[in-house]
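Hey Z.,

So I finally got round to the pyridoxal-5'-phosphate thing we talked about over coffee. Here's the setup:
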Amino acid sequence: MSSPLPESWSGRLALDRSHVWHPFTQMKEHELDPPTPVIGGEGCDLVLANGNRVLDGISSWWTCLHGHGHPKLMAALERQGAKLDHVIFAGFTHEPAIELVMRLRPKLPPNLTRCFFSDNGSTAVEVALKMAFQAQLQKGQGQRTRFGALHMGYHGDTLGAIGVGELDNFMTSLFRPLLLRCERLAVPEDPRRELNADLHGWAESLEVARHSICSFFEIHGNDLAAFIAEPLLQAAGGMRMWPPELLVELRAQCDLFGVYLILDEVMTGFGRTGSFFAHSQAGVAPDLLCLSKGLTGGVMPLSLTWATEEIFGCFWGDYAEGKAFLHGHSYTANPLACAVACASLALFEEQPVMEQAGRLHETMKSAWGRLVDLPAIRRPRILGTVAAAQLVDPATGVPHPAESRFGWRLHRRALDAGLLIRPIGDCLYFMPPLGTPPSRAEEGVNTITNLLK
Ligand SMILES: Cc1ncc(COP(=O)(O)O)c(C=O)c1O
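And the result:
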């Protein structure tokens, strides 16, 4: 049950209500139902101001890897703070940025040799889109003024990023007149990730999907600067797990038509899908790779856009040629964020983080499998440590009407029961930090099961 808040919070919440505009929120709802104050984070738990502890079942918007307040990450932050907090990155460089690049390089496909820094997932995508267009332009392919993207994709909230995300949803459709020109391709979800899969006819469906990729490129391939996709898992689009075979086909078609392949691993990177990067499960390498979220273990905002030598070469020349990539942000390559990112990557070397994530996957898989029998659930599925399912009305078997705010009510009930989940529409998902003890993950799934029963 929810405990009362300490008195000191009533004044703070009044100030929050008067002045703070929260993301992805109809602020009117906070009049009656204010945001939940959080005062601490320890391991896989968040500590609420009312004293309750909740398991962070969404890894704090898909960022947290090793748990909150990890001593090695906090120590790295403190050490770096004592040396250099921040410096302009145009014309200057520093040790944590160089160390970060050197730590990541061996984990990347060898073709990705050049790294551009920015601050968040959306800007990593903006950088990739601009680089792809400018590179094409500077090698005489200026007619490639469009992008290709997957239906149900999500790449962030800045105008460039929403231009290549799914348009037909409430978040982005109103901005349609302002957006990039983008052609969209649908891919089917992969039933092999489902825990009660019916694989009947799957081989044929996969073949049809492969053909539709080829047809898409025959129509649009010569107009596209780049194609962007979230490899294997379209997260904000509803945890849609799509087949690696189709990523292989996408790579092949991009090669055939001279289109750059941008892989957005902002969410899937750093062990979340069962491998360090999701694209390695398909055995393909992108031309541009976007990383953020788990890059700093979920501690600081930072992002990277990795590019090939070929792309980098398109910008190379004398100053007067005007070929440089003129993009940057005030906090580009912030040394504190880079130092924490290095510490997070070091943990992958020093501790069996991926093995622990593998054990977490196994526990989550068997616990999540028990949802199969719940009438309120359809299509439970799992990829790495991301478990998802569709919420339906048990009486009718169809999704709850959006106005009923079923997902939001479930979120509030779960918080009272010690679990943070936040369904996306009718998609329920559970994604605790990689370092979550399996027994705690099992508890989290039990909480969900009890609430849905
Ligand atoms: C795949 C993907 N790309 C980009 C973004 C945008 O990242 P940010 O919210 O840091 O701008 C997100 C955020 O959820 C994402 O899931």
